[in-house]
Amino acid sequence: MDVTGWIIVAIVVVLVIVAAVVLSRRSGARRAEAERAKAQKIREQAALDQVEVQRREAEAARLDAQARLAQAEADARAADAAALQNEARARSAEATGARSELDERLSTADRIDPDVRTAQPSTARGAETTAARGVDPDVPAERPRTDPGV
């Protein structure tokens, strides 16, 4: 082969190499374009899903707020109940003191009254009967104790 044949072969080889490089770049460009399109679709789907995620987050926040409100109301009711229990205890103690004072006054009246026998001291005035208190059966039971004229 002469030099012209070798030049033609070299030109053909160079053209084949250039064509291969061009095709390779086009293939790479197509692949890059396909990946860009795929990434864009993923971003679009993520944008659509973001709205749903935000809705779910808002619902979770709303439920959390409701739970906190319910807890606050329960705490307030518990505080009210505790205050009422304290008030009930105080009034019960006051009533017990008043009952003791009343029993003491009645006991004093029984000791002073000549018609009442006081052999056994009374401890539970509310449950006593006139017979258990030692009231004279000859004295009418209906006689009021506070009437000074009787």
Sum up the structure in keywords:
single chain, 150 residues, mainly alpha, 1 helix, 0% strand
What spatial form do the alpha-carbon principal axes imply? rod-shaped
**Intertermini distance:** 163 Å
Give the integer mean of the pLDDT values: 82
Task: Indicate the structural class.
Answer: mainly alpha
The largest pleated sheet is described as: none
Order of helices and strands: H
Assess the beta-strand content as a share of residues: under 5%
Written overview of the protein:
The structure is a single chain. Helices cover 73% and strands 0% of the residues. The protein is rod-shaped. By secondary structure, the protein is mainly alpha-helical.
Per-chain topology:
Elements: H1 3-112
Summarize the entry for a quick read.
By secondary structure, the protein is mainly alpha-helical.
